[in-house]
Design brief:
The structure is a single chain. With 494 residues, the protein is mainly β. It contains five helices and 31 strands. The chain has three domains: 44 residues, no CATH class; 190 residues, Immunoglobulins (Immunoglobulin-like); 201 residues, no CATH class.
Length: 494
């Protein structure tokens, strides 16, 4: 029987080899041997099951690479259950360039191992899926970049035979044709004239809060608030506020309340918008969503114009007043699903509980399965045990973010003693949401809270007064008052 000892000596084949066995027979010790019978080839190690060792990915496509562990591995005595006995293989992608003009490959987050695969002993002979997808720069030019995927085991003290074993490399070519985005945008400009991604103009002469843009897969959206341009309650109406949401983060820019400028994070539960808010100028803000979609906000007097620029991740996956981005205007004026309003604009109006301008709006967090991870540290030529995971599908290396101390967009994870990646929350400086940022024009407006009023009866008033008079501060101040009264009385005597 072929055992691990045979693989170690005398030639030390190790893993990653094909083994065949042959056997011959004789009738007598000195007679001629028969024709050898050769067994089928047996691969020992971890192998890719894809029919080709080259994978092509275009635009936002996801590539599934399947791997199989063909031989079992050992575990320490008494620790042969799945909670202690497993084999981790880390995904490493050697970087050929650090420029922001080249795409990256990122690994879709997994439940346990954020940078690779985890094999259990029961997985021998079963395919395991590794999912990767591209991370493109923000340019709209055609790009193509060859990359290499390397799957390698980490150090395994329980079974050194499987330590530092590198699986055969998988070649990946990532390319993008973002010409579909040329001259594509959606807008709501005063008063408010609307324009869909596919180029359909229309009017929305209604006051209220509306869903301007919704991504049907990722948890991100943009809402606008409109009010009478002349404050007389009649048309025309102008955009006075915009709220941008990703997961449980909401950034708001508004002049709707007495025309005071309000610029802040209303909520910051996921902290993935930290480096996504940029003040281009005093009248121009830009917020970039995880998909690469970005929102330009231009202040125009007491109101604003809002532009939404899509990414390839938006194609055929949007709804709201911006319409379905699919290259045709035939379906751009659909009602919200389930609505029978005669005016599609009204169907996209939201009530107060669903308004992103409401600080108490209930939001779902950004799902971990939509975070993307890498174990590549800058300038490292080997995998590390730290996974950097974020929600960003686009590379925004040239961004100059504002409010960087209010949210943290990346979650760094370190592998613990059980091989599971745990968030470290390094660099999380976010302390409060309500006071995250307030324009100098309205400090007093934002910091003001409602004063609570207590209704007294004669008995409760007496109790509160007696409680106050029994405090040390009151007694000391009372003595000072008596002294001043005594001095004043002397001055009044003739």
């Amino acid at each position: 029987m072929l055992t691990e000892s045979h693989l170690k000596t005398p030639r030390k084949f190790g893993l990653g080899v094909n083994i065949v066995c042959s056997i011959t027979a004789t009738t007598e010790p000195t007679s001629s041997e028969s024709v050898p019978v050769i067994s089928p080839e047996k691969f020992l190690g971890i192998r890719a099951l894809n029919s080709s060792s080259h994978v092509h990915i275009t635009n936002q496509m996801v590539a599934d690479v399947y791997y199989e562990l063909t031989v079992p591995f050992g575990c320490p005595e008494g620790h042969d259950d799945d909670s202690h006995c497993y084999l981790d293989a880390t995904l490493f992608i050697p970087q050929t360039s650090t420029t922001c003009n080249k795409p990256d490959i990122i690994h879709s987050n997994s439940e346990v191992n954020s940078c690779g695969l985890r094999f259990y002993r029961s997985d021998v002979g079963k395919p395991k899926k590794l999912q990767v997808q591209p991370k493109f720069p923000t340019s709209t030019v055609q790009l193509s970049q060859p990359m290499t995927l390397v799957l390698t085991t980490v150090e395994n003290e329980a079974h050194l035979f499987f330590s530092d074993y590198s699986v055969d490399k998988m070649q990946v070519t990532v390319s993008t044709d973002q010409t579909v985005l040329n001259n594509k945008y959606c807008y709501a400009v005063c008063d408010p004239h609307m324009f869909t991604f596919d180029g359909l103009p229309y009017e929305n002469q209604n006051a209220g809060t509306f869903d301007l843009y919704i991504h049907q897969e990722y948890n991100q959206r943009v809402q606008i608030e409109t009010k009478s341009c002349s404050n007389n309650g009649r048309s025309p109406y102008c955009v006075c506020g915009v709220a941008v949401q990703a997961g449980s983060d909401v950034f708001v820019l508004s002049t709707c309340n007495n025309r005071l400028l309000d610029v802040r994070f209303v909520q910051c539960g996921d902290r993935i918008l930290q480096q996504k808010v940029n003040e281009i100028s005093k009248t121009h803000y830009r917020v970039t969503l995880p998909s690469g979609t970005y929102v330009d906000i231009h202040l125009v007097g007491d109101f604003m114009n809002v532009y939404v620029y899509p990414s390839v991740a938006d194609f055929k996956k949007t709804s709201g007043l911006c319409g379905l981005f699919d290259g045709t205007t035939n379906n751009d004026r659909l009602n919200r699903p389930g609505s029978n309003d005669s005016d599609p604009n009204i169907s996209w109006m939201v009530k107060e509980p669903e308004s992103l301008f409401n600080e108490n709006v209930g939001l779902l967090p950004w799902e971990d399965r939509y975070r993307f991870c890498t174990c590549n540290e800058r300038n490292s030529n080997k995998p590390v045990n730290i996974a950097t995971c974020d929600a960003t599908l686009k590379k925004t290396c040239d961004a100059k973010p504002m409010f960087t101390d209010r949210c943290v967009n990346k979650r760094r994870k370190r592998r613990d003693a059980n091989g599971i990646y745990r968030p470290t929350d390094e660099g999380d400086l976010h302390k409060t949401v309500q006071l995250a940022f307030v324009s100098n024009n309205q400090d007093s407006f934002m910091g003001r809270k409602k004063r609570s009023i207590k209704h007294y009866t004669e008995e409760t008033a007496r109790q509160d007064c007696m409680q106050l008079m029994n405090t040390t501060a009151f007694q000391r101040c009372s003595k000072c008052a008596r002294i001043r009264l005594h001095i004043d009385n002397k001055r009044l005597r003739p």
